[in-house]
Write a structure and sequence with these properties.
This protein is mainly alpha-helical. Helices cover 72% and strands 1% of the residues. It contains 19 helices and two strands. The protein has a two-stranded parallel sheet. The protein is globular.
Length: 393
């Protein structure tokens, strides 16, 4: 037993070492990122020119206030901005790994797995999360900071599983305050509300309250209430204003000749997604006894989040970050029969990053989309089959 534990520790140490070294190699590379030299570096330089207080009062960048504060902090440091940006992401990735470990231990404990075995699997789930290609590429190579808003989603879901609802909503609200894409998990939280009824619907008020609080620095710096708090409204118009169309390198149904039809399909797509989610919420309410088991609840919640990315217009290649991260941990280490799904998801995500980061535009989105749709379809079939078996039992 001691020998096995030693081997496990060595394997984990090697995984962590690879995670660190890989990032150290990628961080200095700034020419591959389609955004760093065009957006992030000029934003940091703008804060260097104006100073933080004056800069926060201007329309620098198109992110909401917390990310702008991060770029402002980068402007104070005597180094190239890509260094702190990558470090911020890596810190968030490490914290995510810690809470992924907690989630896996909790779910395996619910299954009756012995503590030592659960901790071993959870340790490897956490270490693997740091080695996923899209995670490393996002923060270290792209210089994106999606890990920062995602870490708050991961923490929120952990507290949701622990029935600590106030903490869950506060962390989720912080995530939303960093990035609009957190909204993909709102159906998950609403489903938990209907199924559990263990908290007041007023807990959802934390989302707008935290959004207002997190915007205060810019308001106090005289940016203006409208310019500050309507940031997400402008982001929802990107399909039209920035020419993204129905999809931007995300492998969903709109890659099959529908991308340029956003003028006609945007609102119907939103309505379709809302209708599917409503159907899923109603189905979840009818099966609420089955969803009392946290494993079933998180699977159904991830299904709803994945449904959003598959049917909503304007999805980008990075919007499924939290979904793939959590699906990998849950399906590879708890629902292990579903590992082929997360393998496909990670391969699709990797190929999309290869297209965008490495400029391999000759790779067709059609087969990638077919693979993603097939994985999604199988996951839907698996989830509903599990619900049907429970009814039969």
């Amino acid at each position: 037993m001691n020998k096995n534990r030693t081997l496990e520790r060595v394997a984990l140490a090697v995984m962590l070492l690879i995670a660190v070294v890989a990032r150290l190699i990628m961080i200095p590379e700034v020419t591959l990122s389609p955004d760093y030299n065009s957006y992030y570096l000029p934003w940091v330089n703008a804060y260097r020119e104006y100073g933080i207080l004056t800069g926060l009062g201007k329309n620098i960048g198109d992110y909401y206030v917390p990310y702008n504060i991060m770029y402002a902090i980068c402007s104070l440091l005597p180094c190239e901005p890509y260094i702190p940006l990558a470090i911020f992401s890596f810190i968030a990735e490490i914290v995510s790994a810690v809470y992924i470990r907690k989630i896996v231990i909790f779910l395996l404990g619910e299954r009756g797995v012995l503590q030592e075995e659960a901790e071993t699997k959870a340790n490897f789930a956490a270490a693997l999360s740091l080695l996923l290609p899209f995670v490393m590429f996002n923060g270290a190579l792209w210089k994106q900071c999606d890990a920062i808003y995602v870490v708050f989603i991961v923490i929120a879901i952990y507290y949701l599983l622990k029935d600590q609802y106030r903490a869950a909503f506060i962390f989720f609200a912080i995530s939303f305050g960093f990035k609009l894409q957190a909204i993909l998990f709102v159906p998950f939280f609403f489903m938990i509300y209907l199924v559990k009824k263990g908290f007041s619907i007023l807990e959802f008020a934390w989302i707008p309250v935290m959004y207002l609080i997190m915007g205060l620095p810019s308001v106090l710096c005289k940016k203006g209430i409208r310019d500050t708090y309507f940031a997400y409204m402008s982001q929802t118009q990107e399909t039209t204003t920035e020419g993204y169309g129905m999809v931007s390198y995300y492998p969903n149904i709109y890659n099959f000749g529908l991308d340029n039809l956003d003028e006609y399909l945007k609102l119907p797509a939103i309505a379709l997604t809302a209708g599917i989610l409503l159907g899923l919420v109603i189905y979840a309410y009818r099966k609420r006894d089955f969803l009392q088991q946290k494993e079933n609840a998180i699977m159904f919640g991830l299904l709803m989040a994945w449904t959003c990315t598959m049917f909503l217009p304007g999805m980008h290649e990075r919007y499924d970050y939290a979904i793939v991260l959590l699906m990998t941990a849950v399906c590879a280490f708890v629902k292990r029969e579903l590992w082929p799904i997360v393998l496909v998801m990670n391969i699709c995500s990797l190929l999309v990053y290869v297209i965008v980061l490495f400029g391999q535009y000759s790779i067709s989105m059609i087969p990638i989309s077919l693979a993603e749709i097939a994985a999604y379809g199988y996951f839907v079939f698996y989830v509903f089959k599990a619900f049907a078996k429970n009814k039969a039992a």
